[in-house]
Amino acid sequence: MTGRMRKLALDFGFAWLVPLQLLAALMTDLGYLQRPELGNAMVTGVMLSLQATTTNGKVALWRTLPVTDREIGRARWWQMTGLPGLAIMLVMAAALALQELMPLGGSRRAMQPDAMALLRGLLLQFFYPVFLTLFGLAVNFARLTRSPFAIASTILVWVPWLLLLPGIVPGLPMETRMLMLGLAGLVLAVILYMTAPNWPQPVTQPMQLEIGGGSNRAVTSDRAGQGGWMALCGLAMLRPVLMLTMILAVWITLVLALNPGRGTILQLQLIIPLIVILQMTQFNATALRALRILPGSTASLTAYLFLLPLILMAAAACGLSLILEPWLTAATPRIDVVVLAAILFAGALGLPAGLAVRQMAMALVLMLPLALAPLIIFGWDYVPPPWHDERLLSGLTASAICGGFIWMYVQISRGTRVYRLQPFVASHWRGRD
Amino acid sequence: MTASLVLTGVTKQLGGFVLGPLSLQVPRGSVTALIGPNGAGKTTTLDLALGLGAPDAGRIEVVGLAMPTDEVAIKRKVAYVNPDLNYQPWGRVGRALNFLRKFYPDWNDARCEELLAGFGLERGHKIAALSFGARIKLSLVAAFSRDAELLLLDEPTTGLDVNAKLKLFGLILDFVKRGDHAVVISSHQLADLERVADQVAIIDKGRLVVFERMDRLASRFIQLDARLATSGAWSRLDGVRLLARDGERLRLLLDLNASSREQVTAHGLEFLSETRLTLEEIFMTLVAPEAGARP
After folding, report:
1. Between helices A298-319 and A262-292, what is the axis angle to 10°?
2. What is the pLDDT of residues A301-318, one digit of tens each?
């Protein structure tokens, strides 16, 4: 690796995220060491590949630097595949060392996975960055050529994941299939490395998805000045609802195909605020100035942009508790107050935080619902009362909703600062004049 | 008839930047140019006028209504254009316009179609694929499709081609012809503003430096080339700004509202020549740091 290539490969957009990624990956690896199962093996690869999702966007700038296309190609490989692979090995080594140094006592005594299970886990984790690289190349290929084959390739790259479905290859145990997928990833990584200097440059033009939103044609049938706020509801909720539906559908398919359980449902529920906050933050950051000039009061706009997403979160969480969970696990339908409180608590603080805090702090806010997951799953047995009290949790959540509403109102009414802080939206210079 | 926009002692602090205290009055039937260097406070002023943020102190009246008490009514009567208005979440030009139409009973469909054609936009255009200038055009179409009473145009000429710019100035002049309508426009295209504006407000570092009718501005500020005749205390005079100095020879900007030519002569300067300045030259001399220390 040349010095220039190294500089490019280490050009991380969100360097501050690295410690968080490593910490999350370490926790999941410790989980895998305790229970070397498929579900515990996947997350590390995902966590350590977060940086890779920003690589293609940087290439337009890299091309203006005094570096060759070959160096750019290799740097892309390192950032998307090589470095996540190295990190996967290092984190697993750290997890092993940590387990040796601090063995868990009592009934949760650590199990020692054999070398084969470790290898399997590492290879499977590594498949994710390889897949992400391939998928990125396929999308780029499709955008460049627009050919049917290129578009089909964006779907074909998902095919290897089918290996994880039970019964896809009769008689082959899950462990073998995991190993096969991991080895395929290793071979693909080598091929990608060799071809990296010749990868086409990524298309950096923004991609506009055609998702709903009504007709372009001039409307003259109804009177002007009517139905605006209903249209705003639809617009604001469109992306969160679509994203939630899509992710829920994928998740439900996986749960049905793999291992349905309470833990999986809980993970699914706690992803809800993450998706809704992220989508709403992006929407607010992009459209808030345009929305603020509409003839509505700050309070009504706050109500739309704050209460609607919370209602969506609550509806999705209750739907999972009352319909999906009983269907998948034959449990009695009931609303889990603890989970609902956690979701609304995170949402009530996350939505205004998206307008108030900078990108790094916003990332931490988004982690909040995820941080609540281990607390709910593992911490309950160890946390002393009164935290078990559902009334207390409901009270805390109600306070968070009231506080969140006021916080959001203040942010929107204060104005100018809101438009300059745009977490998770492409950076955009905003002057003061 | 009340003024279109009245700012009285308005201040706003944003981090280390302080706007104001700012007091100005925009009469109906006029075009007011708001000019200043980058970071002077122009956008903040326009934002405050529309309620996109609350002032720390002072009073804002828009079309005879008080902000923030009548925020909604004001927004119905004011149109606003800014390069940062991002309609991308609406996807297509037509969808964005259909959405906005639902909020304004005074929306004029025929005029909207006419403006779209005039600016070369189509309802089916993807907003993400529009050029920077075309996005401004979309904001302009949205603003002029209504029968607003006050137009707040923040850098509306940014990215516009020459034809679109001429069309915009034509629209502005048509708009104010209606008598009770007014326009406040901030731009760095000073030559264009000089043609279209009735009065000008120059803001620098959050302070209102000058607020004057355009036709009076050129006669109010003059550039003097002078020689130091005696060691008179000319520097103590109000409205005299040293632009350059070469030994005994001085170049000064004189604000005739503050000091007369006779007062300057009486304070030890001998006039060599006098030059009338354009808006751009007045702006540059007023916001430029003063040359050297005075004697």
Report:
1. 160
2. 899 889 999 999 899 888
pTM of the predicted structure, to 2 decimals: 0.73
ipTM above 0.85, yes or no: no
Report the chain B residue with the minimal C-alpha distance to residue A420: B84
Condensed to tens digits (0 to 9), the pLDDT of residues B40-72 reads: 889 889 988 988 888 889 999 999 999 888 888
Phi, psi of A204 (to 5 degrees): -105, 0
- Nearest neighbour of B43 by CB, restricted to A211, A297, A431: A431
Backbone dihedral region for residue A277 (phi beyond 0: left; psi -120 to 50: alpha; all else: beta): alpha
Count CA atoms within 13 Å of residue B162 on its CB side.
Answer: 0
Q: Return the residue of B nearest to A220 by Cα.
A: B109
Query: CB contact, 8 Å: A394 with chain B?
Result: no
Q: Which residues of A touch B17 (CB under 8 A)?
A: 432
The vertex-B143 CA angle with A425 and B63, nearest 5°, equals 110
The burial of A396, by beta-carbon neighbours within 10 Å (0-12 exposed, 13-18 middle, 19 or more buried), is given as middle
3-state SS string for B144-209:
HCCCCCEEEEECCCCCCCHHHHHHHHHHHHHHHHCCCCEEEEECCCHHHHHHHCCEEEEEECCEEE
Q: What is the helix (H) or strand (E) element at residue B78, kind and residue range?
A: strand B78-81
Under an 8 A CB cutoff, do A297 and B124 touch? no
Q: Do residues A115 and A33 touch, judged by C-beta distance below 8 A? A: no
